[in-house]
Amino acid sequence: MPITIPRLLPAREILEEENIFIMDEDRASQQDIRPLNILILNLMPEKEKTEAQFLRLLGNTPLQVNITFLKTATYESKNTSRYHLEQFYTTFDEVRHKRFDGMIITGAPVELIPFEEVSYWNELKEIFEWTKSNVTSTLHICWGAQAALYHHYGIGKQELPEKCSGIFAHRIFDKTEKILRGFDDVFFAPHSRHTGTSEEAILHSPDLKLLASSEEAGAFIVQSLDRKQIMVTGHLEYETDTLALEYSRDLERGLTVPVPAHYFPGDNPNQMPINCWRSHAHLFFSNWLNYYVYQETPFEWK
């Protein structure tokens, strides 16, 4: 089944070229089916790139999915046109009365700022609390995962000696968890962050379960015991060249950053990276939509 997106959304052309099955609102309204309603709070600067990354993964399942993009009202993006935001995004006040089957809260380039000093932190805290009663399952990515761990469970973040960037091997701790169904014993995933989260604190939390971790990059997939809150500290949604583009951008800004680990062949930035995480990215999002959203959400919210 297709993913339903606005007819004029720029990501539409990208997805059509990749043969992702998509549908606009007009055709979707004629389908006699209960679609999943997914809300995406996009906190990333280059919102159009992030839209395509997540829509690609959400559109590759047998489920029909309606997408609503959410922006912060307390901070206006400087990297995305106002026209794009006004046409394709909504604010929390406009959806707070609604219920959603699933929600994704993306990462954000504010890792080195204390949570309370982030300009939209109070708004985000309100959204976090709202998800407890209005969303079946919420998926938090990178800084979004750190923010959720801090808000919901009191687990903070620590600045790393150097940026954690690269493709890292992960092992899983519980093969019976449905979100890991079909995963290899060892799988690879991208990380890109300046801060980390204590694996020990997660393991000692009575409300959390660590599902996957990397010896080099640390805790990766964490879930609440009721499966309503899923935290992923890396970026399964990243495209093949995303880390390369980030590395070039950091160098252009004069930053001292390591070459992304295990990414370029021979650690040579002049070589084309090879994608070794795509299949698990699709599997993860498919499992989330199926087992944590579709199988758990009511047919009609009351």
Question: Notable features of this structure?
Answer:
single chain; 302 residues; alpha/beta; Rossmann fold; 12-stranded mixed sheet; 10 helices; globular; amino-acid biosynthesis; Class_I_gatase-like
Structural features, described:
- Helices cover 30% and strands 25% of the residues.
- It is built from 10 helices and 12 strands.
- The longest helix is centred in the C-terminal third of the chain and has 17 residues.
- It is globular.
- It has a domain of 211 residues: Class I glutamine amidotransferase (GATase) domain (Rossmann fold).
- Strands 1, 2, 3, 4, 5, 6, 7, 8, 9, 10, 11 and 12 form a 12-stranded mixed beta sheet that branches.
- It has 302 residues and is of the alpha/beta class.
- Helix 1 packs across helix 3.
- One of its GO terms (molecular function) is homoserine O-succinyltransferase activity.
Give a brief description.
The protein has 302 residues and is of the alpha/beta class.
The termini sit apart by 26 Å
* Shape field: globular
- Which second-level CATH architecture of the domain at 3-159 and 196-238 and 284-294 applies? 3-Layer(aba) Sandwich
- CATH first level of the domain at 3-159 and 196-238 and 284-294: Alpha Beta
**Which regions have little confidence, pLDDT < 50, spanning 5+ residues?**
27-32
Which percent band covers the strand fraction?
A: 15-25%
Q: What is the alpha-carbon Rg in Å?
A: 18 Å
Relative helix content: 25-40%
CATH-defined topology of the domain at 3-159 and 196-238 and 284-294: Rossmann fold
E-strand count = 12
- Structural class given helices, strands, pairing? alpha/beta
Nearest-integer average pLDDT: 91
Main β sheet profile: 12 strands, mixed
In N-to-C order, the SSE pattern is EHEHEHEHEHEHEHEEHEEEHH
CATH homologous superfamily annotation of the domain at 3-159 and 196-238 and 284-294? Class I glutamine amidotransferase (GATase) domain
Q: Quickly count the helices.
A: 10
GO molecular function: homoserine O-succinyltransferase activity
Protein name: Homoserine O-acetyltransferase
Catalytic activity: L-homoserine + acetyl-CoA = O-acetyl-L-homoserine + CoA
Keywords: Acyltransferase, Amino-acid biosynthesis, Cytoplasm, Methionine biosynthesis, Transferase
